[in-house]
Amino acid sequence: MKRVPFGSLFLSLLVIQSALADVRLPNVFGSHMVMQRRKPVPVWGWADPNETITVTLNKQTKSVKAGKDSKWRLNLDPMEAGGPYQMLVKGKKNAVTFDDVLMGEVWVCSGQSNMEWPLRSASNAKDEIDRANYSNIRQLLVKKDISLTPKDNIEGEWSVCTPETAPGFTAVGYFFARQLQQELNVPIGLINTSWGGTHSETWTSREAMNRDEDLRVVAGKLPATYDEVIRAGKERSDAFVQAQQGSLPTLADEQAWATINANDSQWKRMAMLGDWEWKGLPTLDGVVWFRQEVMIPEGSKLQKMTLHLGSVDDADSTFVNGQLVGNKKGGGIREYSLPDGLLKPGRNVLAIRVSDSGGSGGMMGQASQFYLANDNLTIPLADQWKYRIARVFPSSYKPGPNTYGTQLFNAMLKPLIPYAIEGVIWYQGESNAGRAYQYRRTFPLMIQDWRQHWGYDFPFLFVQLANYNAGNGDSRHGSNWAELREAQTMTLQLPNTGMAVTSDIGERSDIHPRNKQDVGKRLAAEAMRVAYPKSEANGNDVSRGPQFDKMMIDGNRAVLTFRNMGAGLVAKDKYGYLKGFEVAGTDQKFYYAKAELQGNSVVVHADSVTTPVAIRYGWADDNGEVNLYNQEGFPAIPFRTDTWKGITEAAKFGN
Which residues form the signal peptide (predicted)? Predict the structure, then answer.
């Protein structure tokens, strides 16, 4: 038997004993944190079994013993807003100190990319950041993570809002917090736990999924380990490529694809601009080639031509008639000067090799940024391009946040519980639009799930989908975005909920509207109604727009009345015309309608419909033309009066 020197063994035992004896807290606690006022304040962590832990904050001192599982928890008594304080957590062997602790209002900010969207990318970002010097606004940014089982800690730290840190704050959360602080004059803490492109099901616990008849089946298929996930993902990826194009190319094939006469007759076509994961290449991280023929008229002056491509995610190598004209990594506008003589009248070929290492991929610019030009000539480039996959990176089939349900709940939400909060603001739904009918159940299920885990029915405020032309959806062809908005509106039946309508402040061609200022203000207005109804600062209780109430048929006209009218209905149009209304008869065919205000009612009719049966308002993916408001400036909620079958009723999560 090999003998271990006594000295080494003794030192090893000391190290183990010291490590076990250290009092630890999860990273939701930290210097600069904001803790919730006027509620019991849970504090928890780990220590040796039966070790006594003492917590001191703002003249309060409480003690508790760690259990046999090394876990401990205590509740500090409710406190009023104030600070800065120091919190001391002391055990037998060590003490943990947190400085610059404030008591105020704590809000969880969650959802997908429009909540994750940073202040640096919002409208008027430079001016907003220069003014973002608010020492009483703090953010805990939770690092992205996934897990098949619940975790007990996150990675992240609290930061104070300054012009140096503010660019990384959630833009919606920042504007929400700024408005709340003006209303309440107390510190505001934001816990930013969000991830772009994620489904609501990944934010839902396994216990909640087991309570839903559809999600129960999905929950039963959750794998035990990620090794299983990776193996299955690679099999799916290989099968996808096989079905898409048969095989991946050799290096020689790729080199040929840059040339003018490459055979691309079997290539598929894609509306090139925008994330390719939404355009037929879901979850793909890798390399994709795009090709397009450009016909240039005879007699065109082609000197000093420049190719404009907008932004690329992540990198491109761009060829014109077989010649490399430029390459660039990272975002930013591409403008490549072309040698004189490279372009010729007649047929020309552009070939772009785009490489994406993770997340969104493709040509991310706007159509207006995509053209060939010199001082005398501008040639717009078509959105439809031929494409072919060249490489699939392993990250394509590694598990992502949407691979299975529960993963973000386990890794990015459960470790935050039971940190005391006032409520949640939520901006998500784009990724669930294809299953909008099911969202009527799964969204309220998620809200109730979070509340049950926290142990109280905190306010839950959410943003309704903005106008965006996701797929030309409307009343004639069906609109999953309109159906998702309807599911969000129906969720207002839950107590302590509020919704910010944003149909008037989206962008038709961008799923990420830059105007986050108004989103934050509208959420803050709802917070004042739902969370702070007795606040002295809440002098105006109108926080939302008109909501459809009743319809009465009068001959060939439909007369609509509304709730939440405030001081009265208005049409935001210099001529007083209302837009966005449609009417249908028993044939269920909708026609654009004339609508006018008569007092606080809206009268709708169309010459093509003699007996109205149903009215719709703002029922389209891109419903940005809607213009019915109350006098307080809040937009009306899009609606329909019918219950006719939509286009998403059969779609289920996991199918």
Answer: 1-21
